[in-house]
Amino acid sequence: MTIKDLKLLLKDRRPLVTLLVLPMVFIAIVGMSTGQLLTGGDTRKAPRLAISNADTSEYGNMLVERYQSRPNLDVQIATSAGQAQSLVDLGRVDGALMIGPEFTAKVDELGLRDVLDPDHGQLSGGLSAIDLSLDLRPGLVDAEMFRAALLSDLLKVIAPIVGRRNALTRRFFIASATTPEDGDNEASSSTEVPSNETSPVDAASTKGEAASSSAVDSAVPTADQPVAAKPKENAAANVYLILVPGFTVMFVFFVVNIMARSFLAERDRGTLDRLRIAPIPASGILIGKTLPFFLVSLTQVCLLFVAGKLFFQMSWGPDPVWLIPMMICTSLAATSLGLLLATIVQTDQQVAAYGTSLVILLASISGCFMPRDWLPPVMQTISLATPHAWSLIGFDVILTRRVVDTPVVLQSCAVLLGFSLAFFTAGYVRFRAMTRV
Length: 437
Hints:
By secondary structure, the protein is mostly helical. The chain folds into two domains: 2-39 and 234-433, no CATH class; 48-228, 3-Layer(aba) Sandwich (abc type-2 transporter like fold). It contains 20 helices and four strands. It has a four-stranded mixed beta sheet with strand order 2-1-3-4, sandwiched between helices. The model is unreliable at 37-43 and 178-236 (pLDDT under 50). One of its GO terms (cellular component) is plasma membrane.
C-alpha cells in the first residue's frame, strides 16, 4: 500500500511542482526583492544624500569630504539649502543635510563633554545646536539607521577637532592624525616639559588617557573598522537564513492538500472501504497511507535546504546534524495535520478552501513571511499554538546561533512530536467514524 501510493505520487508531477519548485521560486523572488541575488551579491542601491554647504570655513568642507569618502553613500552636492530640500521633496534623494553658515563657529564652542555625552551637553538640543539640518524622505525604510549612520560620521569629524583643544586628550588626537613617530614627537613638544620631569597635566593625561581614549573609541569608531564591513559581506546569507526556513516550513505544510485529495480519490474509488473491511487495524492503514507523504515531505525539506546551500550560500549553522531531527519532526507534524484534514473534508472544493486557507493562515501567524522577532510579543505568544512556530524556532536556533542551544532544539522537537501525536490521534478517531458519502 505504501509503495503503491509512493509510485502514484512520483507519477503525478503537479504535486512535486507545488512542493519543490514553488518554494524555490518564492525564495528567489523575495531574496531578489531585498537586493540579494542568487549569487549572494548585494545589488541594493546606496543611500542618496544631498548636501548643501553654506559654511565658508574649513569644518564645513571637512564634513562634506567625510561623507563623500563613504563608498556606500551616494552624495550629491546642492548649491543651496532650498535645492537640497527640493531634492528630498521630489524623492530624488533619501535625505538632505544642510550645513549652515555658523557651523564652524558652533563647533568651536563645543567642549569634550558635549561630544562624549551628547545627550546632556550642547548637542542635546539636536543638530540645530551646531547649525545643521537633516531632512529624510517620508516613508524611507530604515530611516533611523540612516540617521544614526550620518550622525556617526558627524561625530567622527567633530570629535578630533574638540579633542585637540583639550589638554587631557590633545596628544591622543594628534597621534591618531599622524604617524606614530610624528605623534610622539608632536605630543612631547606640545607639553613643553623636559623628559626627566612630569607636569600635573602630563600626570593627569597619563592616568586619564586610556579612559578617554576608550570612551572616544566607543563613541567615535575609526573609519577602518573591519566590523563594519562584515555584515555587508554576509548580507545575502543572512537574508536567506530567514527566507529558506520560513518558506520551507510554509510549503512543507502544503502536503495537507495533496494528502486530502489522495484520500478523497481512494474513497471515491472504494479503495478505503475495501481496506477497512480487510484484516488490517485502522492504525496500520493510516500509517501505510501517511508514510509515503512523510517521505515526500522529508525529501522536500532536505532538497530545499540543499538548494539554499548551493544557490544562496546559506549557512547550515555550527552543528548541521541538529537539522536532521528538526526536519523529521517538521515533516511528521505536516503529514499528521494532512491526515486530520483528509478525514474531515468531503469534496475537492473543501480541500481547496480549507486546506489552502489553513496553510496560509498558520504560516502568517507563526512568522513564515517575516522574522519572528518582528512579530509583536502578543503575536509571538499566540503563534506558539501552531507547529510552524516551533519549527521556525528550532531552525533559527540551529542556523543563526554561534552555538546551538540544544535544550531549545529538543523542546521544539518535543512540541512538534506532540502536535504530530495529537493530529494523528484525531485523524484516527475521524477515520474510524468515517462513512462513505
